[in-house]
Amino acid sequence: VPGQSGTTLRIVLVGKTGTQTTTANTILGRKEFDSKISALAFTKSCHKPEQHWKGRNILVVDTPGLFDSEDKLMYTCEEIGKCVLQSYPRPHTIILVLQLDRYTKEEQNTVELIKAIFGESAMKHMIVLFTRKDELGDQTLNDFLKGAGNLQSIIQECGNCRCAFNNKESIEKAEKEAQLKELVHLIEKMVRENGGSHFSPPIYENVMEKLQHETEALKIIYEGELEEETKSVEEKCAQGKISKHVMEKEKLMLSQTYNEKIKNIREEAERNIFQDVVNMVWDVLSEIWNMFW
């Protein structure tokens, strides 16, 4: 349960590049992502820093803007592939970041793209986060949304899970803390209503299987290498080519190298299956990509 101490809450942010990147920094409480305003998308890779907050970790995967870039389909597939691996084993929520004053074709496309990749059930695990909360003035978010007909359908699809953030660096620490608290409570409530766990898009099931196979294959390779190299060192010693002291020293080094490889086995397995994950995303997106342009 993500509300428990010591657990990691995995959040995937989607939306307009600059807006979502600034929001990621607000959630993390530090400037971790580059949020310069640029004509082209600049969040060029999925990045996953964590914030330790009230006894738990909040892991933020900031994806690039999927529709505000000149980059081609393969770029989008690669970035989504990174996102899937970095939010593994599965995300608890997808946060769609919108500006208060906009819900354009671009944002509608982003929602359709999320459904295509993560499945229709993703909407039950989505939160709409509005930025520019400070511009509401005396209005509440509810009041504002009453007059925003085009936003109503997306909010209803998300089970009315929505909140607003002020991302300005000048805001008081207490307000930042209150915003994060509201968001975390919203995620926890949504997770409870969805059966107390993260959600399981089919793509993650495939990735889990591939990662497991790759990890097991690498382990067998490393164990074989260790056994072979250890045997070789022992034979050298038996033939009098090296002393017993040198043999023990070399065996210790071989053992340390093996342990280091085992420690990094997950990262290597991820690198090895990355192209497979990209291909899985490609299979989904290439059929529907033209609908978005």
Entry keywords:
alpha/beta; Rossmann fold; six-stranded mixed beta sheet; 9 helices; 55% helix; 12% strand; disordered N terminus
Describe what this molecule looks like in 3D.
- This protein has 293 residues and is of the alpha/beta class.
- The chain folds into 2 domains: 9-194, P-loop containing nucleotide triphosphate hydrolases (Rossmann fold, 3-Layer(aba) Sandwich), CATH 3.40.50.300; 202-291.
- Helix content is 55%, strand content 12%.
- It has a 6-stranded mixed β-sheet with strand order 2-3-1-4-5-6.
- The longest helix is centred in the C-terminal third of the chain and has 37 residues, at 202-238.
- Keywords: GTP-binding, Nucleotide-binding.
- Belongs to the TRAFAC class TrmE-Era-EngA-EngB-Septin-like GTPase superfamily. AIG1/Toc34/Toc159-like paraseptin GTPase family. IAN subfamily.
- InterPro entries: G_AIG1, GIMA/IAN/Toc, P-loop_NTPase.
- Pfam families: AIG1.
